């Protein structure tokens, strides 16, 4: 038992030492630059160096200067951070003008505003009556819930 512990301990020392003293990757050095232009130039330079250089290359990452200082947030913010989300759909209240049974427990509902919705899940006791009111409201993850006048709900998707 002690031999195994001693052997593992001896093998671990040189391995840990070599990892600790190994230089970091040049790409990692480029990634920490704050300026987009300096970071891009560094990445381009490193890729060219990797195509032609020997494995014993040396990183030449420029030191942070005024040129590599972070730009104001409005100038360097990505487009996704500044993009506005589309408005959340509002609930729709309408009257049922047509009902079609697609399969057992699944119906297609046509509303008075011309929209056609299909039930996506079977629900025990769920029924929609002709000329009765329904409300369709957004649910989670892009789903929609149809609620009847008697407070029964089912998930639906819009067909038209």
Structure description:
The protein has two domains: 23-82, no CATH class; 92-158, OB fold (Dihydrolipoamide Acetyltransferase, E2P) (Beta Barrel). 32% of the residues lie in helices and 24% in strands. With 160 residues, the chain is an alpha+beta fold.
Q: Which features characterize this protein?
A:
160 residues; alpha+beta; single chain; six-stranded antiparallel beta barrel; OB fold (Dihydrolipoamide Acetyltransferase, E2P); 5 helices
Query: Percent of residues in helical segments?
Result: 25-40%
Taking strands numbered 1, 2, ... along the chain, how are they ordered across the largest sheet? Answer: 1-2-3-6-5-4
**How many distinct helices?**
5
Number of domains: 2
According to CATH, the fold-level topology of the largest domain is: OB fold (Dihydrolipoamide Acetyltransferase, E2P)
Instruction: Estimate the global geometry from the Cα principal axes.
Output: rod-shaped
Distance between the termini: 73 Å
CATH class division of the largest domain: Mainly Beta
Gyration radius, to the nearest Å? 32 Å
CATH architecture of the largest domain: Beta Barrel
